[in-house]
Amino acid sequence: xxxxxxxxxxxxxxxxxxxxxxxxxxxxxxxxxxxxxxxxxxxxxxxxxxxxxxxxxxxxxxxxxxxxxxxxxxxxxxxxxxxxxxxxxxxxxxxxxxxxxxxxxxxxxxxxxxxxxxxxxxxxxxxxxxxxxxxxxxxxxxxxxxxxxxxxxxxxxxxxxxxxxxxxxxxxxxxxxxxxxxxxxxxxxxxxxxxxxxxxxxxxxxxxxxxxxxxxxxxxxxxxxxxxxxxxxxxxxxxxxxxxxxxxxxxxxxxxxxxxxxxxxxxxxxxxxxxxxxxxxxxxxxxxxxxxxxxxxxxxxxxxxxxxxxxxxxxxxxxxxxxxxxxxxxxxxxxxxxxxxxxxxxxxxxxxxxxxxxxxxxxxxxxxxxxxxxxxxxxxxxxxxxxxxxxxxxxxxxxxxxxxxxxxxxxxxxxxxxxxxxxxxxxxxxxxxxxxxxxxxxxxxxxxxxxxxxxxxxxxxxxxxxxxx
Length: 469
Ligand code: SF4
Ligand code: SF4
Fold this sequence. Notes:
The protein is of the alpha/beta class. It has three domains: 11-70, no CATH class; 77-364, Alpha-Beta Barrel (TIM Barrel), CATH 3.20.20.70; 395-461. It contains 20 helices and nine strands. The protein has helices at 11-22, 26-36, 44-50, 56-74, 113-125, 144-156, 176-184, 199-205, 214-218, 220-226, 243-261, 290-303, 317-326, 341-346, 366-375, 385-388, 393-401, 406-423, 427-441, 447-461; strands spanning 77-87, 130-135, 166-170, 187-191, 232-235, 267-269, 308-311, 330-332, 379-381. The protein has an eight-stranded parallel beta barrel with strand order 1-2-3-4-5-6-7-8, surrounded by six helices. It is globular.
């Protein structure tokens, strides 16, 4: 495909959409919310209206519709993953990140393949099957060859009945050939956040290093798709610039990918600026309040009903639960945001918080979180079935948009949860979990899928693993 990288973030268009959106009448807002309820998604124009709603009654309507969409498409399943930081060497200068090159107080560390293996074993013992591999950007300390070797190591580790089944990778923007190599190595989703779509803010917060090139960073997903990766994950670091601008810009990014490559982002992540070693929040005038963050999550759920929405442990427990109901479909659990943190935790050592990228607000162990989720009516899931059945990119979206994805998500969530209960859960968690499975079986819409699920549950009890639809 002859393709020319273009800057598709037209700021004057975003500002005029926001200007027009501010003038929308109550009736117009209600009509957009009603349209969103049909699960067909929203345009940037419509998003520019909703993201500026301040009226409490209208906000409540938006939240109610977001909850309905979440329930209709995703049911009660909540997919779990954990980040795995393998190197914090970085040549970039992102002002909001503790790993920035000028932070001389940050101890730098890069894991050996043996250390990576130990981290993976610790993650497997927590029940994890999906990880997000994270690194800083460094041409010699963390070249692509190291990342590929790390992936090979991670996929090769077997711990009792378990192994990592999907590695999503969050590394710096690179070229088409490198993306092709990541694809060959078995990448799940390629994740890269634009951080801020606002050009001047981007330039100010990324003064040095390869990441200072806005266009190179912005068009990374285009190159990833050209390299054959069809699941990509985008995101903004909320708090760097006006969230209204960022939300509309995110929609423009999704629209661009859909127009050029025929498939929008597989996931959108919602990190919010948090304190980090060597980073003060005083100089950030656009920090997002809990109220506005709630609105962001709900509006995005209405705008892109079929896109996975990811929340990290940056958010505090009670509030995190609220955001899940509004649209989040994936969460991280038991996260260490430092290099080598899981193994240290397993060994009962203090995790080295000084190597953490940001502070974690939800420190519940995966087991505590799982019990809480079950009690709240959710279904924890470690499912990786789509990726392993070749249901990625447009094939995934085709299934998702017909509404049939729930017929595989719900059974797969139940089967992976059963594996977790068999292999890792304490008796207390197992009791709560088995009750949840009984309740969630009834929510499988197709009789045939329910029968298959029951048959496979019995096989898992008998010792088989990795069964999926
Ligand atoms: Fe480096 Fe990423 Fe941190 Fe920027 S955000 S300093 S690229 S680790
Ligand atoms: Fe995700 Fe596919 Fe599993 Fe559903 S069935 S949870 S969409 S991998």
